[in-house]
């Protein structure tokens, strides 16, 4: 039985063997000068009789070889109280053998097994993205223990241990770089083929490969806790998940199959024509209908995985195809989520931009405020002397910082800090602060020994592809793009003008974002929420579809979102929605092909013009058609670059609450 089971579960074995036997039977019949596909043969000599006998035996053997796996699947289905389409084929083939129609039996089983093999092959092909991810999982790691390099299994690395990643090696863990520098190829995680430079403080992910340099990495995630492991788990779940229409078709098949069997029995009782009844059994098999949905879903999910778009399952593909409104978080989604220095305004005569930036950066060197880093980094990048710490640093909570540098008193902060410093002449600093704040930036006044010398400003930079993403969403049929942000109104409005969204709702708490999504839904809209999966988690869960940005950087996104984008490329949002619409279009076409084929064949059988073999041939051709149609989804498709358009005027709504 184990041999039979293995045979039945090897999709290509049965049709290959059966095809060879049918070919041999045809050769034997032709050598006798008779038609191998006819059940009636004229008598002949001993040689002809032997050839016909050999052909008959070979055809019968082909039917058994191809039909045995089908029968075993039917029996297993019955064991689970399921009447599958395999039962229809099994009954039809056995009946054909009983009445001596060996060619029909061989044709039925062979063609059905070919369709099964093609379906299995397509499923395996669409799962290749998962296979590539599994292959990317590293097996060994070089760990520094007691100053020595020790090679261990990657799952034996303990969190907190230091792992050494050499040139050409795979990163075995998720972690933070603590030393060294290297370029990593992160294609297995983000889909990007270009190497990414990694230095101290950068995050790295298991499965990425060093293309030059050596890194010391402090392990933060090992084994099943790595980003790669979560990706593999999510893809497995996605490809096993079922769409609502797929479940409907399976329920339909459960009723349809017994109905066809009853129809065949009734036909036999009424007409006494067993061949007609068996033909109805074969023609009525809804094979193409049953596989039309799952093959499209698996192909769509597989294409998405290859493009760095992880989709939980078929249901989410179907819902995504109906999306007409996209809600976007700002920080970390439309913007990079990291502050950058944007402006250095000189207000004191005799000083240069470099002077103002140098004083500000040297003062901020002693600060722990997150806005200090972009000032220091910019000054360092421009070659300004910012090394070392101030002689004294005094943080002023809520206002800024005051530092002593080479005997000079330097203050960096907001306008109220000027009052604390006793400065009455701001040299126009208030006007600059107001101007920069209106542009969505955070300004900081710089003073030197009691005099205002300038203003520096930082801002979260809008992603380069943000405007293009909004254009592509509109081109794809999304009628409304809304920004939901906890930031203040002026910042939100500035970003909205830059990006071109239709509407902005600012100063929202997490529960306010949920309320905004629900309000859109109450207006009859189908909403997709795009966020980082942390503060946006409630809104992601409330929307019909939650899309998480930057899943390679947060495990929460992979675990909670319906769709996770494996890097921070916003253009994958319209790509994901376009893929969903293409997949649903393929589903509908597949169903149309399947239903039309069954309807035409049944009419042909009742009219007397379609035989069992011809009907099965056409039926399996329809199975092949829906498989090939679904395979179109596997091809990479350029969804078109949107064209830059004039900025849209966004409608701004503010909720009075503390920004998040």
From TrEMBL:
PROSITE patterns: ATPASE_E1_E2. Residues 641-660 have a biased composition (Low complexity). Residues 639-660 are annotated as: Disordered. One of its GO terms (molecular function) is ATP binding. Its main location: membrane. It is a multi-pass membrane protein. One of its GO terms (cellular component) is plasma membrane. The keyword NADP does not apply. InterPro entries: ATPase_P-typ_cyto_dom_N, ATPase_P-typ_P_site, ATPase_P-typ_TM_dom_sf, ATPase_P-typ_transduc_dom_A_sf, ATPase_P-type_domA, Cation_Transport_ATPase_IB, HAD-like_sf, HAD_sf. The keyword Cell membrane applies. It comes from the Bacteria. Keywords: ATP-binding, Cell membrane, Membrane, Metal-binding, Nucleotide-binding, Translocase, Transmembrane, Transmembrane helix. The chain crosses the membrane at residues 52-71, 252-270, 276-302, 589-607, 613-631. Residues 137-236 form the P-type ATPase A domain. It is found in: Cell membrane. Belongs to the cation transport ATPase (P-type) (TC 3.A.3) family. Type IB subfamily. PANTHER family: CADMIUM/ZINC-TRANSPORTING ATPASE HMA2-RELATED, CADMIUM_ZINC-TRANSPORTING ATPASE HMA4-RELATED. This is Cd2+/Zn2+-exporting ATPase.
